[in-house]
Amino acid sequence: MAPNPPDRPPHSNWRDLPNWPTRRTVLEYTGATATLATLGLLGGSAAAQDDDEVGADDTDEDDGETATDDGPAYSYWLPDDPRELEFVAVDWVTLNEYASDELEDAQPDDDVPAEFEADPMIAPVSEGALSAYLFVGLDLAQFGLGRLLDDGEMFDSTVSELLQTPDTYVVLGDIDPAEIDERLTAEPAAEFIRQLEQTDEIDGYEVYTPVEDAAGTAIAVGDDALVVVDDEAVDALAVLESMIGAARGTADRAVDDSESFAWALETAGGGDVVIGQLGAPAGSAAAADDGDRLVDFAYPELEGAETIVSSLTIEDEETSTGNFAAVIDDPDETALADVLGASGTDQSVDVDGSRVTATATWDEEDVAVARKM
Q: Which candidate in 24, 226, 234, 313 could, as Cys together with 171 as Cys, close a disulfide (CB 3.0–4.6 Å)?
């Protein structure tokens, strides 16, 4: 079981206590800059040491989705947004098998090597993975779904992938709509639990909204996905329609409207944890104005990048690889080579006009040495 948050009394269900801290507080507490390489390659879970190689199959057996030449399956859920787009995508099957213990046991005093924090291919992806993981325990707890990732202990529904954007959270997998309905519509068992009721339907998904009117909150439930919107600043139903429409092919997708984004996804979007942005350039005034961004690529070397996709893939119990793709106005190849994948080995950085690609590898031995320095 994960440790209690600081300054909180011991409680067996501390994730579900009413005065739960903000996502930012918890990210800081769990060490948001702890890298996936550190989480996975140091003290890897026993599950990761099975004979079966983790992450070797791109086919998702749980929900039947398969990455195609047109892009990874999660990309179908990313609608064309006239503003900007940020996302975090997690192959939960792989991450759960490999690093679930490390995700839960991360401590605030974990020493993270400075070179990891300074590497755009490591820190942002790691923060994204933790954000997606913690969203379920934090944000979904208010709907009675806070333990959805707990390996069948509380739910018959199973999770294969997680997708987070600033407006929405998508749980992909084998979902039992009746089970979710029972949780959402149940009489609240605690003060902080919000009761919902079925009020609408969108393209085969049953839509639930709070019994007590709350702007910006709606949950769509289907047998292959659970789509959550909980942001009072948006029209929740419109957001659901846009995202479900993209997934069903009845609304425009970001990948279809942007050649640079499609290229970046094809190049670097196939990892076990993937983050990306399309829109406000990294380091721009528009990006700086948003102090709570989902994806943080605020590195001087990436200033002016309008499209970025970065991913980490778990190859086995000892090795992770990273892939990076960006479209940057007037990129500085020397400066980029100093940071992209610099904390790993087998580093490669290539600049072709405005297109930048990079790859690197992180091995258990290298990570262990870095943490001792």
A: 226
Residue 111 has a pLDDT of 54
pLDDT digits (tens, 9 = 90+) for 275-327: 999 976 555 444 445 456 788 899 999 998 989 999 999 887 778 899 999 99
State which of 23-27, 37-41, 169-173, 313-317 shows the largest mean pLDDT: 169-173
How far apart CA 34 and CA 122 sit, in angstroms, is 9
Give the per-residue SS3 of 188-255: CCCCCCCCEEEEEEECCEEEEEECCCCCCEEEEECCCEEEEEECCCCCHHHHHHHHHHHHHCCCCEHH
Q: What integer pLDDT is reported at residue 282 of this predicted model?
A: 53
Pairing relation of β-strands 355-363 and 158-164?
A: unpaired
pLDDT digits (tens, 9 = 90+) for 224-233: 999 999 998 8
Gap between the Cα atoms of 314 and 272, Å rounded: 7
Q: Which helix (H) or strand (E) holds 264?
A: helix 259-268
Query: In angstroms, rounded to a whole number, what is the distance separating the alpha carbons of residues 137 and 258?
Result: 34
Q: Domain ranges in the chain?
A: 22-152+159-173+249-372
Predicted confidence (pLDDT) per residue in 181-236, tens digit: 999 999 988 888 899 999 999 999 999 999 987 789 999 999 999 999 999 889 99
∠ CA(228), CA(232), CA(237), 5° rounding?
50
Q: Calculate Rg over the CA atoms of the chain.
A: 20
* CA atoms of 104 and 100, how far apart (whole Å): 6
